[in-house]
Design a protein that fits this description.
Blueprint: H1 3-15, H2 18-25, H3 29-43, E1 48-51, E2 54-57, H4 59-85, E3 91-97, H5 102-115, E4 119-125, H6 128-136, E5 142-147, H7 149-154, E6 160-168, E7 170-175, E8 185-186, H8 188-191, E9 195-199, H9 202-215, E10 219-224, H10 227-235, E11 240-244, H11 245-249, E12 259-264, E13 272-279, H12 286-302
Parallel strand pairs: 3-4, 3-5, 8-12, 9-10, 9-11
Antiparallel strand pairs: 1-2, 5-13, 6-13, 7-11, 7-12
Amino acid sequence: MHLEQLEYIVEIAKTGSLTKASQNKHVTLSAISQSLSSLEAELGVSLFTRSRMGAVPTPEGRIIIKKALEALMKIQEIQEEAQNYTNTLSGELRLATIPGPMNLLVNAITSFKKDYPQIRTEIAEKGTQEILEDIRQNKIDIGLIIMYESLIQKSAGLGFVFERLLKGKMVVGVSKNSPLAYQDSVTPDELCQYSFVLYNDDYVKWFANDFAAKYGPVDILFTTNNTDAIRNAVRENMAVTIGLDYSFIHEPYLQYTDLVTLDLAIPDQQPIYLGCVRSEERHYSSISMSFTNRLQYDLKQKSSALQP
């Protein structure tokens, strides 16, 4: 029995497919199939029922796969414990974030890399659902998303762990040349008179739809993940945008006063949280834990900018 055999059966069980497992593990389908057959022969039991629909664990297979996952997690803990004795961490950290908070990560990543130069860090901007799917498929370790109640409820039982990092609220971004720029806040009736440009994020789209349902239809000029396109449209006074306050407050371009942010005068507006999401089924590595702690500390230092 070899470690890669345990890794393969865990991946097959997670994806429900030998083909997908081979793709995720970057090995050939033949290698996965032979490894599985060899392990089944060694153990004397069938671990999966295979068909055109995929691979489903047998009753015996479910028990063995669970123990294989536990064994792999223990081995990772042993490796990390050994690293702790040498005061070094090495490996990789794979991150993904929705577009707005990217600028919040810069300081944390820079200081983390300075302290742990042997860690390879990858970061990407993606939508919330893509981040959750990448975590499920073990393509990333940590995702930064907007946390709201319906998302957490919808994700219950799917193997995710959510953690709040920073409390925020929805605000309106307008051009410094807009008549709205001379106000501290904007009412829904006033806002409905303007076109919108929006981040292509699940929560932002949900908020816009909920806003339209309560206060009347809105004209959405376009939706995109291109922050430059949104900023340019607002700066040229073609539209306004709605987003989380921390996305604007830490936006470096604001130092040139291109944009102005206004409170959204909606009664009983619920708080929104920038949150961290990871897999419940995989070991919470020392690398991921150390970075999350670093990010929490960094955000606490910045959070005063969000206060009135």
